[in-house]
Specification:
Blueprint lengths: L2 H7 L2 E9 L3 E9 L5 E5 L4 E4 L5 H13 L6
Antiparallel strand pairs: 1-2, 2-3, 3-4
Helix pairs in contact: 1-2
């Protein structure tokens, strides 16, 4: 199962965003409908930001996304 499928199963919606201010940064975002729950992957800086503690299933999806981005070498 892909990370996107895992996040969708957990109730998150996928989006890809580009932010330009003194350079360009690309982001993958997963957000819940309530709006305040989100997990953001900064593709340029290899950083992950979340607004709340993660469940084990969310953590598994984050780990899978990192593997798919080649941020983790096994």
């Amino acid at each position: 199962m892909t990370a996107r499928e895992m996040f969708i199963k957990l109730g998150y919606k996928y989006s890809f965003d580009t932010f330009k201010l003194g350079g360009t940064s690309n982001f993958i975002s997963y957000k819940k409908k309530r709006g305040y729950e989100h997990i953001v992957f900064n593709l340029d800086k290899k950083r992950i930001q979340t607004c709340a503690p993660l469940t084990v299933d969310e953590l598994k999806a984050v780990y899978q996304q990192c593997k798919e981005l080649d941020w983790i070498n096994e």
